[in-house]
Amino acid sequence: MANISSMAKDGRLLAAGPFEGGGGIFVLKTSSIEEAKQWLASDPGVKAERWRLEFLPVIFRTGKPCTALEPYEMVSYHFIRYGLTLAKHNVQQASATMRNHEQFMKDLYKTGNVIAEATFGDSEGSILIMKGELDQRVVESSPAVKELLFEIDVKKLWIAKGSFCE
To answer: Per mean pLDDT, which range of 41-45, 85-89, 145-149 is the poorest?
Structure first.
């Protein structure tokens, strides 16, 4: 916890929160995966290998991470990860399917329930953070899910209100 507070105070940590059931996210202010690894290496939980860490470059297309102000008010959002599953049957259509997925995300934003949406680049998929009641059929209706280019993982994220400038 001291490591998290230290990184937040000096501006390296933009947002962090646990997932219900285990795991969580850190959004760090760096463009270097190596630098992010160095920053987290001193964390006692990381040293003890309590978690499986993934370091992914993130590009927010809707919403953005912001430093939440104290006193923190914790809120819960739906965190949807669209994980890329390239295979022989979908690789040739992947580019067109990705464009259709991006349009799907733009249309979904218009509902007013999207807090943030981001991509991990061409090889790791994307995330969607939503408020309100979640109809899983809606997030599963992405063309990329229907065409088996993405699989989805839905979790509840607990995070300080304002962490995504909402």
So the answer is: 85-89
Assess contact for 27 and 79: CB atoms under 8 A: no
Q: What is the rounded CA–CA span in Å between residue 82 and residue 121?
A: 12
Taking the model in full, what pTM does it have?
0.88
The two three-digit tokens of residue 103, written as one number? 């349009």
Q: Read off the pLDDT of residues 105-119 as tens digits, 9 standing for 90 and up.
A: 999 999 999 999 999
The number of residues making up the chain comes to 166
Cis peptide before 71 (omega within 30 of 0): yes
Cα 20 to Cα 156: distance, rounded to the nearest angstrom: 5
Q: Which domains does the chain have, with CATH numbers?
A: 2-160 (3.30.70.1060)
Spell out the alpha helix ranges (H) of the chain: 2-9, 33-41, 44-47, 94-109, 136-140, 143-146
Question: To 5 degrees, how large is the angle CA 160–CA 139–CA 96?
Answer: 120
Token pair listed for 116: 């943030």
- pLDDT (tens digit, 9 = 90+) per residue, 31-71? 999 999 999 988 888 888 888 899 999 999 999 999 888 89
